Amino acid sequence: MFNFNFTYKNTPDLILGRYDILLRKNKHLKSNVAIDVGCSIGGFPLTWSRYFSNVYCVDACYKNLEIARRNFQKFNIKNCNTFHFAGGSETGNIIKIINNKGAPYNNVVDGKSTIYKSRSDPRGSFTLENANTKEYHNTLTISFNDMLKFFNVEKIDFLKVDIEGAEYDFLFNRDLSCVDVLAIECHFSENENTKELTRHLQNYFNIVTSVTKGKHSEYLMLNKKYKNEDFYSPKPSDIRKDQVEFLG
User: What is the three-state SS of 167-200?
Assistant: First the structure.
């Protein structure tokens, strides 16, 4: 059974998933779509939702989505909707999400014998027997193409992807020409799959800015059909970070 008895604490210094730069086309302001895959507790939409007409928030962990909805209600954000899916190479696979005590929740049971914190890094695995003592819940995978169909969109103005190593399965060999701006965290930068995915992304995007933190790299990418001067960087919203709810 899934336990909803969580406690909250104020976190004045951090909103998970926040990006320091957001590029938007002037003429599309307030009439565009953002999709946040791996939204966690809603950090990105809390900061940037006012620049979009609709924000679709996707996360594999239902507890993350519950916290995100509470945050949206607190700040009266009405253009964000949450969806319980995990990004994957195909749609309809059942995966198990381990309910840890701290947010975000990203441990995935992959197969019948091994659990991976991130599927691209088997070094983080532990035995299924150990996992059986932990609380978990199930979710379904959704592919990139089926996600477009599900949300009934042909173009994504801003796509954020932070899915703990599943980004390769989700984006590799996909036609990403419909995405204007991509913000992505690529996990385990020295992993060959990560390198292969980065090369694939650069078929569609130019890298505007990037930062590497330990084993992971974050990229902000702009579709090659645009020039940087077609965009500008608005200031973030004035969300009171001391009021954002995190799981204690």
Answer: HHHHHCCCCCCCEEEEEEEECCCCCHHHHHHHHH
